[in-house]
Design brief:
Chain B: It holds the Pfam family Amidase. Chain B: This is Amidase. The complex is a heterodimer. The radius of gyration of chain A is 18 Å and the shape is flat. Chain A has two helices and no strands. Chain A has a domain of 44 residues. In chain A, 46% of the residues lie in helices and 0% in strands. Chain B has an eleven-stranded mixed sheet, sandwiched between helices. Chain B starts with 6 loop residues before the first helix and ends with a helix. The longest helix of chain B has 27 residues. Chain B contains 14 helices and eleven strands. The chains are: A mainly alpha, B alpha/beta. At the A-B interface, helix 1 and helix 2 of A face helix 9, helix 10 and helix 11 of B.
Chain lengths: 74, 473
């Protein structure tokens, strides 16, 4: 049976890059998952690159939370 | 009373002696007996517990002890939220069954203290991020308006169950739209409160900085009644805040209310043809109630959606990475694909996403200097049929449809948003409108939605299968 993989520029470079990132996290993705994510990756990468072009964010404090003092366990 | 009643109607009927909690609960359980084999809303039912709680509610109300509008009301809880009466599964075989065993999440404890009759735990899609898996051990949730269609997710069981009268309200969670998407597809009202307004302790995390717990019910008034009970800080959730929640005064008019109307990005050419006319009609109703309409745009739309994606991916992968590495095949394929996306961004990307969130949040705050409420469609389409979102290998995916989901922006900025039914497609499937407010401005959007719902009846319409159930009672 065929499986639907999103159409996109899932180039050999993207496939290799995605495979490396998944491997670095120890995620044993199969060929279908690798192809799927490789097809998406160029669009995700373009979106992430766009985050770095937001002028107003150059001096923005990130919305991270860390406060001294130990909160109660969840 | 119409069938099934709204929470607010049922609460009034209880106090008028027109119905008992036991009767309401028996009716809700009967609806589940009749319909849940098809709809797949429940993962676990607590019938005996619920009937005992209903009897207790009737005794208390008869004795003059009134715990408020949820007292004696059949209520459902999404199965990522801990409840002592049964295990939390997150609809996964991966989650340790001992997770939060025997404990109530603070929101559940608050519901119990308010006298709610919790009837069971509800379908959620695996870890609130996968898709239904017909080959797995859990039911495939179906939409009460078209049982061949997806009910939306991940709060699938809560939305479907409310629409079908299996309970009168329920809890969901929203990290990228998981309250509002199913509310929209199932024709019910869903409220994502401000981030931190409702504690998420005792909830299986998806995105630590994005997860919101909130109600789904028939009406805005119903949602307001639930929010009044579940709002407030809890020491177990460091993100929860002690900003007082003041319940809205429902006036019915919108004189002086400025509504920012958002069209940009919300009307793609291939959106459902009924969407634009339905939205225009909803705006006409709001203007007729006295609101002033102002065309506006949402700042940093694309950037904020990307920031949500990066943030959720990273936070979810941090939680799941060890299990993914060890038990990859135990996850539903769509879930592991969604979680693996978190590996595709760097730590710097994550921090940059948080900087963009701050910028978007500040820009949005400025926008709310000029408007009181923002209105936009929730979704660009009616509920997709399963056969349209299932590939030849049997994988169910809405990745292609997700561009019609206009919800993740709001999770990322943390503002409160309510999704309300506003019409139907040509096929009779619900369409939905979002009403968003400034941070901690829930009362404002609830009041606006209530005024809209007084003037319309979309939220009162019930699927044919639920109406049949009512006629047979």
């Amino acid at each position: 049976m065929t499986e639907t993989v999103p159409a996109g520029p899932g180039t050999a470079d993207a496939t290799a890059e995605v495979a490396a990132m998944l491997a670095r996290c120890g995620l044993p993705a199969g060929p279908y998952e690798l192809a799927y994510l490789a097809a998406e990756y160029p669009y995700l990468k373009a979106g992430i690159d766009m985050l770095y072009t937001v002028d107003a964010a150059k001096d923005a404090d990130p919305a991270l939370r860390f406060r001294a003092g130990v909160p109660a366990a969840r | 009373m119409p069938t099934p009643p709204t929470l607010t109607e049922a609460a009034a009927a209880l106090r008028a002696g027109a119905v008992t909690s036991v009767r309401l609960t028996e009716d809700a359980l009967a609806a589940a007996d009749r319909l849940d084999g098809v709809l797949g809303a429940y993962l676990a039912r607590f019938d005996e517990y619920a009937l005992a709680r209903a009897e207790q509610a009737d005794r208390e109300l008869a004795a003059g002890t009134d715990r408020g509008p949820l007292h004696g009301i059949p209520f459902g809880v999404k199965d990522v939220i801990a409840m002592a009466e049964g295990p939390t599964t997150a609809q996964s075989t991966v989650l340790d069954p001992r997770w939060a065993a025997g404990r109530d999440a603070p929101v559940v404890a608050r519901l119990k203290a308010a006298g709610a009759v919790i009837t069971g735990k509800l379908s959620t899609m695996e870890f609130a991020c996968g898709m239904p898996d017909p080959s797995g051990p859990f039911p495939v949730p179906r939409n009460p308006w078209d049982t061949d269609a997806w009910p939306g997710g991940s709060s699938s069981g809560t939305a479907g169950g409310v629409a079908a009268g299996m309970f009168l309200a329920g809890l969901g969670t929203d990290t990228a739209g998981s309250i509002r998407i199913p509310a929209g597809f199932c024709g019910v009202t869903g409220l994502m409160p401000t981030f931190g307004r409702v504690p998420k302790s005792g909830v299986v995390p998806l995105g630590y900085s994005l997860d919101h717990v909130g109600p789904l019910a028939r009406s805005a008034r119903d949602c307001a009644a639930v929010l009044d009970v579940i709002a407030g800080p809890d020491p177990g959730d460091p993100d929860s805040v002690s900003v007082p929640y003041i319940a809205p005064e429902f006036g019915g008019t919108l004189d002086g209310v400025r509504i920012g109307v958002v069209r940009e990005h919300h009307f793609p050419d291939d959106a459902d043809p009924a969407l634009a006319p339905a939205f225009d009609e909803a705006l006409r109703v709001l203007a007729g109630l006295g609101a002033t309409l102002v065309e506006t745009t949402l700042p940093y739309w694309a950037e904020t959606i990307t920031a949500n994606f990066v943030t959720m991916g990273a936070e979810a992968l941090a939680y799941h990475r060890a299990n993914l590495a060890a038990r990859w095949d135990d996850y539903v394929p769509s879930t592991r694909l969604a979680l693996a996306r978190g590996a595709l961004a760097t730590g710097a990307d994550y921090v940059q996403a948080q900087r963009v969130r701050r910028v978007a949040q500040q820009a949005l705050t400025r926008l709310f200097d000029d408007v009181d409420v923002i209105a936009a469609p929730t979704l660009g389409i009616g509920a997709p049929r399963y056969d349209a979102i299932t590939d030849a290998a049997g994988n169910i995916s809405v990745d292609a449809e997700s561009r019609f989901f206009f919800t993740p922006y709001w999770d990322c900025v943390g503002n409160p948003v309510l999704a309300a039914p506003m019409g139907v497609t040509a096929a009779g499937l619900p369409l939905s409108m979002q009403l968003a407010g400034p941070a901690f401005g829930e009362a404002r959007i609830l009041r606006t939605a209530d005024a809209y719902q007084r003037a319309t009846d979309w939220h009162l319409r019930v699927p044919a299968l639920a109406a049949v159930q009512g006629d047979d009672r």
